[in-house]
């Protein structure tokens, strides 16, 4: 093998003075962590962010190229260019001020009855504003060959219900009231303070009916099928027919639904029965103003950022307007851009190599499951069936979304936002009664991320994540397996985590475990929860990780690294790995894994994520995982007394 073989390691990020046996995360990323400043317009920085910036620049180039051509009316190029232009026309937006939503605002403030409230709320939801609950359409978790409507709790301005009740968030609640008052004042609405206090009081009551984050991720508890008649009985104070008419929702959409949190809907019903006109009017006006603030004149944009950007996430500066414009266009016409992005930036060789990696990862899972000493042969056989039915999607969809019915104009941003919301709603509604579309993607090719969808039993890897440091076509296998291999393994692992393992190979929420195997599985997950509960992020030591909230992702991380290691062994095919940059193959695999988590966040952002994000902080996604993995000890000769040493009896192995 050539001595010039590329390792794929970011050597200049490393801090050799730190021993990998004590802190792999900082050994691999320490120099970068100490010297890198988080850009002023971001809450975090790291490899994920760097690739997202790269993707953003590439998308901007696509948009600019399309904007400079004479596009045919109705073409994707025309829509992309005109949507971007409508957002970038600051002079016009500044001149308009609040006028684009003034008529709607007047209606919210004039609401006098419950019926008027539901009608106005429904009309605003049709145009993309938030309401009391979310709806979306996906495969039925108990009949995965059919689509069904899902409904769940919403209605809050803060990230989570805990923000409304826990003492540690008291300052944020005070800041929210100040922010609402400032927005109402900018809108020239009298008694701004009164409106703000009413909104907080009402949302505190709404939050009291919300399920917490841990309960809300339980696939069994959140599957509650209801007929439309049962929905009406559960919320008799909510005039469903009136609201559906306002949102232009056909009857078939709610003929049968899955309600995520029944007690939430019952709680909202009780609130509506005692309809407080002033409180609900303030709430409705606030959610209109808050939803529109980012698209209005500069004073609204800046005030909105001051709270949601700076206070909640610690970001000092608002992103440049072009970056926000790119984000808007991507959200609305993502696959239209993605089709061009793939042509420019995703070679066929990358897709071919990824298919090989995925095949090795799935085979590694098969070998791993076969070797488990805690799972019965009966359950293993069903796990193999599920594994056989995994569908990998790599790079980009086989069928691109059709945007022909979406109308975009160059000079009316608010009208464009309404058209985008209506287009999205009609796209969702079209799924009810139609065959399940197994070619559909839920991320665009230019998205730096990946996902597992239990209802489809599919793992999806967009093109944008398939580049260094996650995937390097020119690098030796070791770092690729430690990086993208662990990502692939992580997503496969979601099919076997505490919730994904409840779904069978066809995507149905159906128990395929023996009772004794499920008990043994939960013993191991409980031990992992206990480990993470004891962790405090370095940048926010006053908070601790929620092991129960993050358990699914932690299982994915542990399984991902385990399977990446085994897949690398398969790829070696019995041959010795070369030593490159002074590291053995297995050492490079762990370094590749650690450098994917190279990242830092502002303390405010760390606290926000710990409260509501099911992912653990980066340092623990690295160090806590390797502490539980025997081959790490062998690769770096970790012994008792080293900081990353965990006694064998305390190490968790699930997959």
Provide an overview of this structure.
This protein is α/β, with parallel strands linked by helices. The chain folds into two domains: 19-57 and 329-650, Collagenase (Catalytic Domain), CATH 3.40.390; 98-296, Neutral endopeptidase , domain2 (Neutral endopeptidase, domain 2), CATH 1.10.1380. It contains 25 helices and nine strands. The chain has helices spanning 24-35, 47-67, 76-88, 90-96, 99-110, 114-126, 170-186, 192-208, 213-216, 228-234, 240-247, 262-273, 277-292, 298-313, 321-345, 348-371, 377-388, 413-429, 477-494, 515-533, 547-572, 585-596, 603-612, 618-627, 630-636; strands at 44-46, 133-140, 143-153, 225-227, 256-259, 391-395, 451-453, 458-462, 599-601. The strands form three sheets. The chain has a four-stranded mixed β-sheet with strand order 2-3-5-4. The chain has a three-stranded mixed β-sheet with strand order 6-8-7, covered by helices on one side. Strands 1-9 form a two-stranded antiparallel sheet. The chain is globular.
């Amino acid at each position: 093998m050539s001595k010039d073989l590329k390792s794929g390691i970011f050597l200049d990020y490393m801090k050799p003075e730190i021993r990998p046996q004590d802190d792999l995360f900082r050994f691999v990323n320490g120099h970068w962590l100490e010297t890198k400043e988080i850009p002023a317009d971001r809450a975090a920085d790291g490899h994920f962010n760097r690739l997202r910036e790269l993707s953003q620049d590439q998308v901007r180039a696509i948009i600019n190229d399309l904007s400079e051509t004479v596009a045919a009316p109705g073409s994707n190029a025309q829509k992309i260019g005109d949507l971007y232009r409508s957002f970038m026309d600051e002079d016009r937006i500044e001149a308009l001020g609040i006028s684009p939503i003034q008529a709607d605002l007047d209606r919210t403030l004039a609401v006098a009855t419950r019926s008027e409230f539901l009608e106005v709320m429904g009309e605003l939801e049709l145009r993309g504003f938030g309401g009391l609950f979310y709806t979306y359409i996906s495969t039925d978790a108990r009949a995965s060959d059919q689509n069904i409507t899902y409904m769940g709790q919403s209605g809050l301005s803060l990230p989570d219900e805990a923000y409304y009740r826990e003492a540690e968030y008291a300052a944020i609640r005070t800041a929210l009231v100040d922010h609402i008052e400032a927005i109402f004042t900018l809108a020239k609405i009298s008694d701004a303070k009164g409106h703000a206090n009413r909104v907080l009081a009402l949302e505190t009551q709404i939050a009291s009916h919300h399920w917490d984050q841990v309960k809300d991720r339980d696939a069994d508890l959140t599957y509650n099928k209801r007929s439309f008649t049962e929905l009406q009985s559960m919320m008799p104070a909510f005039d469903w027919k009136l609201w559906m008419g306002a949102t232009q929702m056909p009857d078939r959409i709610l003929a049968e639904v899955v309600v995520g949190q029944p007690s939430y809907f019952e709680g909202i019903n009780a609130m509506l029965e005692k309809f407080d006109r002033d409180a609900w009017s303030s709430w409705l006006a606030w959610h209109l103003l808050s939803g529109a603030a980012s698209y209005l004149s500069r004073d609204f944009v800046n005030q909105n950022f001051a709270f949601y950007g700076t206070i909640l996430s610690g970001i000092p500066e608002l992103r440049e307007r072009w970056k926000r414009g790119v984000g808007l266009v991507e959200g609305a016409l993502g696959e239209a851009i993605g089709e061009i992005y793939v042509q420019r930036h995703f070679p066929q060789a990358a897709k071919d190599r990824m298919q090989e990696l995925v095949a090795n990862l799935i085979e590694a899972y098969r070998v791993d499951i076969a070797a488990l000493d805690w799972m019965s042969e009966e359950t293993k056989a069903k796990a193999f069936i599920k594994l056989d039915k995994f569908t990998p999607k790599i790079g980009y969809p086989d069928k691109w979304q059709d945007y022909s019915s979406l109308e975009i104009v160059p000079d009316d941003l608010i009208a464009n936002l309404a058209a985008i919301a209506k287009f999205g709603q009609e796209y969702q509604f079209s799924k009810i009664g139609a065959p399940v579309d197994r070619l559909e993607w839920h991320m665009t090719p230019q998205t730096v991320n990946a996902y597992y969808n239990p209802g489809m039993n599919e793992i999806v890897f967009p093109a944008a994540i398939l580049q260094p440091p996650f995937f390097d076509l020119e690098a030796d296998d070791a770092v690729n397996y430690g990086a993208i291999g662990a990502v692939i393994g992580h997503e496969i692992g979601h099919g076997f985590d505490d919730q994904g393992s409840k779904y069978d190979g066809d995507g149905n929420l159906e128990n395929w475990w023996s009772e004794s195997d499920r008990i043994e599985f939960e013993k191991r997950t409980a031990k992992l929860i206990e480990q993470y509960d004891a962790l405090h992020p370095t940048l926010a030591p006053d908070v601790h990780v929620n092991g129960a909230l993050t358990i699914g992702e932690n299982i994915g991380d542990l399984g991902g690294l385990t399977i990446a290691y085994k897949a690398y062994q398969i790829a070696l095919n019995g041959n010795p790995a070369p030593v490159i940059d002074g590291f053995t193959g297995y050492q490079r695999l762990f370094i590749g894994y650690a450098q994917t988590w190279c990242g830092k966040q502002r303390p405010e952002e760390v606290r926000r994520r710990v409260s509501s994000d099911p992912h653990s902080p980066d340092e623990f996604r690295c160090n806590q995982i390797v502490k539980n993995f025997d081959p790490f000890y062998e690769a770096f000769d970790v012994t008792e007394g080293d900081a990353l040493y965990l006694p064998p009896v305390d190490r968790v192995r699930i997959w």
